[in-house]
Amino acid sequence: MGRIASPILCAVCAAIISSLHAAEPIVPDIIIPKSDPAFGALKSIPVYVQEWHIWWGFPYPDPTRELSHMSITMNQFLEPWRLDWDRNGYPLPGLYDSKNSDIIRWQMRCMRAAGISGAAIMVHPTDGGGKVFAQEGGGFIDELLTMAAEEKFQIFFMDEVAFMEGAPRDPAIMTERVIRFLKKYGSHPGFGRFEGKPIYYYQTFGFWIGADATKKMMDAVEKAVGPVYWMIFGNVDELVKIDNVAAIICGASSHYQDKTTRAWDWKKSGQDVFTIVAKAHESKKKASNLNHIKFENSSQPWRPPGVPMYGYRSRRMIDITTNAAAAGSDFIMLSSWNDWEEATALEPGWDVDGFAGDPYLYCRTLAALRGIDFIPPPNPPKTAVHPTIWEKLGYGDGAGPMIERVRRSHQRGDVFEVIVADSMNPVVKLEVVWEGDWHWRAQQPGEDAASGNLTLVSGALAPAQTVNSPLQSTTTLSMSRFRIGNASTALSTELNFEAKDAPQVGALPTVGAVYALDPINPLEGLTAEMTAAAPLKRFEGTIVSNISLRLAPHNKPEDIGVDTWEGWHARTATTPVPVAIDGNRSLKIRTSGLGQKRIAQISVLGAPREERMFPTDPQPVDGSVKRVRYYVPISIARLEKPGLQCVWFRAQDAAGNWGTPKLVAVPNYEFPPPDDGAAVSTADADWKKDTGAVFACRFESGETKWTKTWPSGGGIGSRVKERFVTENNNFIVGNVLFSAPFDAPISGSFRVQTRMLHIEANRAISVWLTDTSGGNGVGMTWTYNGLTHANGQGDVHLMTVAKSSEVEFNEKNAKRASTPTASGHRATASPLALMEMEYNAKERTLTLSIDGVRKGSAGDIVIPTLEKIYIRGNGRNMFDDILVVPRE
């Protein structure tokens, strides 16, 4: 990677940094000057690109197109022309429908101008029992081939059989699929051919049926359609055995760099392109490797783990391709054209390698490698791109003003400073809407129930709980200085709301949600689902009736900074297609997992209304009427109302464009009652006195002290003494083990009871009673693995442990003392289950009951003198009202 620190590159970087906010025209990056040995290094070698994705779904200009293979909220982010989506990088023509012929033709022209010899379009065999590709619906393949012939650009197809399951992988089915496909399309003048043969390309990594079966399939295909140019991505050692195979792609440049040390190993075993090419040439076959120009997939939390590869502003592409050429490769195969999920895109785009300045960076670099100058083709026509990007492409204004910032001067500031900016026109109006047109709000302090004109009609939410501010917290469970309102934990993965008596919101509403920040999973959110006004078409031709919108932050620091301070996520999404929300008056909210979200408010904002416009003229910022400041007061009535409220802001420019609405959480920070002196609860002491207990804890602000033990490797330090104040006295336990001493030891019979409830699946809750060492004693456990586990009840059982060291979070030495039995209580449904364990010293029997019903017993149990209690949560579990009482 010697070129990375070149003086030319450093000079270019400095120029880009100084001009990040400069207006057009774009100044091209000088990556490979003509004096560089890399200029023209690929002049005589064909360059192909695979993974041309043609199934992106964006409902513009066709409003019946389903939003697919992207998560888009429509909300502008940072610039008014940029819609918000969960990808690293942004296509030059904005978010597009990949079936849009204007976009496809522009892409072909870009590839041709960059010196790309041909492109492999990725298709999926999922229809017709695996015999038909999903992308063939509506004559789309014919349309692609016709355009390719007109543009004199070679395309072929990559059968993604390796990623399919079931029928598509059956060799007989695949034989039928290939024969049918080549008979239907292989003779089309736009269908790619090598050596006069139609190309068929597929991957065998993860799908290898053996050399004999592969040859049998290929022979059957060629008997039916004539000679085929088989291009296979797979193991060179296996593929050289098959006479039919003409070209082999083996190994990948993504393995050349160690993910831990970042060191480069160009000769890595099994991936070395020199060895791969040499083996293929011995068998008279053409070969190369797959060249990932980068693999920056950190925008995809669900993508494979590992350190992402940086593009180094196209320097990686220069080095890996010239290395492949030096190995004697017969062609260069690049990945990919427009895989924005994994950010391996060659396609022109914004934020290439992070504000590189030139959207054509990779096309321009590749053209230089090919020894030609890159001349960008004209942009797609105005009618083909979304109005928000018109101004960026020079087509005029189509985007409204952005709410750049909403700020209170301090926690209890009674005025908002609202900064609004537009890039083309003066800002003329600001709409201010408290709560929204429709809203549901969790019960706040001083209220008897949830409020608003949205009613929860199905699904379960736990009773509202106090949420503490993250400010001045040492842990997520310790007392914070401020309480910032109440929220209800989702006990169902689907919540259905209905708005019977509420105003109409129109066909393109904005949906908002306010939920408590989860420091462990800050990027997890909610999903809003609505019924589309008209059926939506998927790429393969099937019809769907719903639109889903993600209400969550993206992997951008700007998107979670204020939330970390205030403790609330306020997330919005505007539907990109008309919905029938006014007709069915319903809204569905989905959660990613039971108990993973504490929801404070669900809100829907409809079309702007004149009576909600802020009456005061704005103040120009920096002397510009395109960037203005409003000061919006908070009423005394709202300031005096405890808990959380919410407000929407939306602005309009002089051209009549409305910008993206912004939802703001407005907590009235409350001081909690002091945890000592007269205000300290005496519930624990009173309960002990009434029952004769040696231990009692109601999880109120009182005397009980616990010791927190982190799981192995799970935290800083080993133990932290804390006094706990919990949310509505239901103690939510994460991945930790807590212990506390008894007031007096127990040497005989006893009863321990507690209230428990699961919040998430695949979790276990335990209570242990042990001797003073913490290593000998008995316990009870409730496990829950999901809705199919004991009909959603989970199972319970008794345990014993005897060892020389303290019990651990994942206690491996414990033995089951009773058979796991269905609990009889829905694991995640309130109220909390009453779980009791009782020991009869005389009979040496231990019994377990749930809600008064016996669920297990064990005999011949000898228990040492007990002096400690442990409670163990996993993920998140609820505890309440723990009592340990000696029995005669």
> Total domains, how many?
3
Largest sheet: 9 strands, antiparallel
Q: Name the CATH architecture of the largest domain.
A: Alpha-Beta Barrel
Q: Would you count the extended β strands for me?
A: 47
How would the global form be characterised? globular
Category from helices, strands and their pairing: alpha+beta
Identify the CATH class of the largest domain.
Alpha Beta
Number of helices: 14
The CA-CA distance between the termini, in Å, is 78 Å
Question: How confident is the prediction overall: mean pLDDT?
Answer: 87
- The low-confidence runs, each spanning 5 or more residues with pLDDT under 50, are 1-24, 473-479, 712-727
Strand content: 25-35%
Radius of gyration, taken over Cα atoms and rounded to an integer in Å: 32 Å
- How much helix is in the residues? 10-25%
CATH topology of the largest domain: TIM Barrel
